[in-house]
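Exercise: predict the structure of this protein bound to zinc ion.
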Amino acid sequence: MKILRTANAGVLLTLDGVRILLDGVCGDLPPYLATPNDIKLKLFHSLPDIVAYTHFHTDHFDNEFALYYENKTGNKIISPDCPTPQSVKGVTVSSAETRHIGKTDAKHLSFIIKGSKTVWFMGDASPANLKNLAENSKPDVLLAPFSYFNSPSSLRLLKNLGASKVYVLHLPNENNDEFNINSTVMGNIKNEPDIHILNMGEVVIL
Ligand SMILES: [Zn+2]
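Solution:
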């Protein structure tokens, strides 16, 4: 399995040779990081097998990429408007309706990716959704936004899942972080050997 961070809260996941883009091209919504141009160009050039978006907020979604992908490949993106599961070569991406964190009515999905390993991709789902998801599945790898790591109660919920690797996404730009979220999260996870911050453009191989 390979995970490349390509967006504010998005990655290109390669599982059993299948390339799956999850919230993986996003726009610019400071203090969050947009997809860098070089990464965007590579994705336009070498389109993934499956593209899935948890919701349509600018820091997760890019309409231009979604339209290009659909026109070029004839595949639909998975999104709240089209949540049908997709499978390629034995790897399946299915979705669960989850509640977006905070005060918004945005329709929102989280993704469960199953192949030789199971990956959960939370998007902007509230940590309270973890319990429901855990009724049907257990993650080997979990990708989640910073809000799962900046309070002890969310962190406890997350650790109860028993994922062997957990990656933090959606941290604000370190130079534009008025609430010191980066340092709070770093402090909370410093003694957690299985929880890592995934930086923009960073690749991990598991
Ligand atoms: Zn959102």
